[in-house]
Specification:
Helix content is 34%, strand content 21%. The chain contains 17 helices and 24 strands. Strands 8-7-19-20-21-18-22 form a 7-stranded mixed β-sheet. A 6-stranded parallel β-sheet has the order 10-11-3-2-15-24. A 5-stranded mixed β-sheet has the order 1-14-13-12-16. It is globular and about 70 Å long. The chain starts with a helix and ends with a helix. Helix 4 (118-138) crosses helix 8. It folds into 3 domains: 3-51 and 225-310 and 447-484, FAD/NAD(P)-binding domain, CATH 3.50.50.60; 55-74 and 83-93 and 214-218 and 325-419, Polyamine Oxidase, Chain A, domain 2 (Alpha-Beta Complex); 117-209, Orthogonal Bundle (Guanine Nucleotide Dissociation Inhibitor, domain 1). By secondary structure, the chain is an alpha/beta fold.
Length: 486
Amino acid sequence: MSEQRVFGSQQAIERDVVVVGAGPAGLMAARRLKEAGKSVAVLEARDRVGGRTWSNVIDGAFLEIGGQWISPDQTVLLDLADELGLETFARYREGESVYIAPDGTRHTYSGHMFPASEKTQQEMDKLIGILDELAAEVGAKEPWAAEKARELDTVSFHDWLRRNSDDEEACNNIGIYIAGGMLTKPSHAFSALQAVLMAASAGSFSNLVDEDFILDRRVVGGMQSVSETMAEQLGVDEGTEVVEGGTDAVVFLNSAVRTIQWAGEGETYEEHDPDYTVRVFSDRVTVKAKDVVVAVPPNLYSRISFEPPLPRFQHQMHQHQSLGIVIKVHAVYETPFWREKGLSGTGFGANELSQEVYDNTNHGDERGTLVGFVSDEKADEVFRLPAEERKRRILESLAHYLGDEALEPVVYYESDFGSEEWTRGAYAASYDLGGLHRYGAIQSEPVGPIRWACSDLAAEGYQHVDGALRQGALAAEQIVEARNAR
């Protein structure tokens, strides 16, 4: 029996709009569409909502396995959290930070500039200044249209840094913030334009290097609670059976979308029903609708069969986008021992296995939690090791920053979204060399009744929950405007 017949045997439900993916973007789109009086179905492949935000209790410890931080410029997220009745709390940052120099020596410091040599600090300041100027010049909305777009997009960030500085330590330190800290790819694998977009989306490169800005606050109860609260208000069907017509639910879990049938411009599949132009077939439910919002990252578009196929340039573009890879390491201790040493828990070291570490203690928790990040090629290296050897090496890296007490956590967990079936990477998609200026202008273009919404396509809030929410709201607004104009 063909896949299409299996899906076609289900009883279809009818909605104005069907949304693929119940992460922050998809749920925000559904929320805004419902507010505009549209009927919606959200189809989610997983058995949970939240996408790349995910909280869980591991060995008795509450951990934010996915995205978690909010910066002051992420106003859409902050406003939504307030609207949903969710509280936020500030990340712990009192005390000195730790810098591990290229020679392995450990230094404590205050402020945002690493305690490197005077020359290295001057070179870092110079690079930050140049990137700030480029971020202001290029902007976040249409970086591909900037005068220097092709020039910046055809050179790797690694090479760009070294063209602008002969200080290797300064180049590596600046690289932490984009390569390891954001795009989770080696700096030779993405362009300088992609790095400038990352900076522009946060307001400036200076904001990216200020961990007190970019990692400012967390949601009490975890970032996933933003999605969970939206979904609860919309109505969730958690079952695993085929959905019959007449359900009032909006969000359908365990409903991986396999096929989207859409009509060409000005055409429909059924002449007797011209108002419905889309059929979306999932594992549990088939939805007949007027519009569809695909709210999953670009690396998952190919998991869906589009009938008829998407335009050729869309297919080409998708081949130039990929997610990075990172291990988010959670280590929970009986007490936040580093605070007793006068340390904030923050540490940086370009040559360390974990290039970043932060105090990630939960709101009101007496135990202390550290979070570290092992990204790109360093993650490749340790993923080849047995689990216990990988754990040992990662904890040794944390101990280099904060002391031998870091070697003995009471709970240890590694988040690996690269192995999750419906994510396959972290934190978000970026283009390979030359891809952003070549395809960026069409990445959000609708295809007939299909629109796209995810943090990977955002301007402000790019790669963050705030950007996902902005994209979801934008897709909903565009659908409502287009329908009202007809």
